[in-house]
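for the record, two folds in this file. i put them one after another cuz i was lazy. first one right below, seq on top, structure tokens after. the second one comes after a little note so u can tell where it starts
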Amino acid sequence: MSVSRAALPFSWSVDFHALFPQKKLCHLSAGLAAFPSAQVSVGKAWLEPGQESRLDFHEAFLYDFSTLLQQLLAFFLLQSEMISFWGYPSEEYDVVTEDGYILQLNRIPHGRENTGCQGVRPVALLQHGLLAEGSTWLTNLANSSLGFILADAGYDVWIGNSRGNTWSRRHQVLTTTQDEFWAFSFDEMARYDLPAMISFIEQKTGQKQLYYIGHSQGTTIGFIAFSTMPQLAQKIKVFLALSPVTTVIFSRSPFTKLSFFSDSGIKVGLHYVLYSQNGFHSDCEIFCGVFQELFGTREFLPHTALGEHILTRFCVCSKVCKHILATVFGFNWKNTNMSRFDVYMGHMPAGSSVQNIIHWVQVGAPFYDVQHMEVPTAVWNGGRDCLADPRDTAILLPQVKNLVHHKLIPHWNHMDFLLGLDATEVLYREILDIMKKHP
């Protein structure tokens, strides 16, 4: 969906204090402030750091309605439209994997200011994490989103979407209503999705090598693919791993503690012990049965209209809800632009398969040999990361044979790598430096 700016020539001024009670104004102002060019004066809670409020919630505030309406559209845009919205060239492709899944692959071929530059641009492939989608690299303002920063720095940016998320829910034969469609985990993402995307990019650009940047599960599939497929690994200039996850032994996120169900006395679990034909099941079997009884056998936490409404309208003003999001997904609200909360929640969670979640909570010691990977690798991890615990990263680092850079960011949680207010200064500039050192 797109709307021409010329189609909205009018300008209205509205007294929102007269229309909405103070509590509703809290929700409304969060949504309005999510769009940077809307001429809005709101309370201090929704302004970016360093800005001062001209009005508070007890006073009326005015804004240009036509500008706001145009910006509100960004909340509903597809990934390709999000890119175009900020003035960048946008391309979108379908990539078919060897096992028949159809993945969406987005491209920003160049930045806003370097359209006239000739010659080949180095390629960067960005891969999102668990329960996320490609727009996680684009949801901040253009000057603080890694996808746009790389494009402006002269890179040909490609953004992947793993099977099962919002934008990769198609198959040549199967449908999402079939259990077979959801019979995958991050193993298949590494074995099929990543090679298919890299091969497509190579054919499209003619370039034999690219930079691979992964976050969370995006690093997991990178470590698996590059350590088990040497020919694929040769196509990677540098592997930039943000908040890498190869084990979840020490992870504090409730997601990785779901296996606790296998030791609890909840009724569903007892059913699998007391009423099985053999009279006994292993902890793993009990857990899998409990999890599937609770969540089914297909998709897990897909993006829905109801979920989006709850997250964008309730959580923005609920300390309890925001605490849950911080605990489960690793948000660091003190280092997050809360004026864009609606935008973040408008694109996540993006779903995965129940089988993938089950596979994740069963991960103990590394199940593949990272030492076989020859790819130059740079690693950044957070000291307060609830998903990629520093102790798990400490297990990984000695196994990385060609570690060219490592940095621990003490105050960062899991989502700071994508949404942190200080991400540009703390991380993105270093990423650009590392990439320049490995042309």
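(here's the note) second protein begins now
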Amino acid sequence: MHTSVRFCLLTIALGVVSIASASADDQDSGSLRAGMIGLDTSHVIAFTKIFNAEAPAEDVAGVKIVAGYPGGTDIPASADRVE
């Protein structure tokens, strides 16, 4: 699978598994807790650093990555990278 396809799939997965915070404080502040499915690429680390930065870019401000699920591809070259 090409890197660009994996990037698109990971981005879609991130959007699908994003959930609004259950606590009133988080809802009032406009924050969004999100998770990722498929932790077998370097994109996971890069995206998490972008979203969880102390001063994130304006377009991702308020989003925090709080969960990850290692499931995803069954391609050995990629699946073997998940610890």
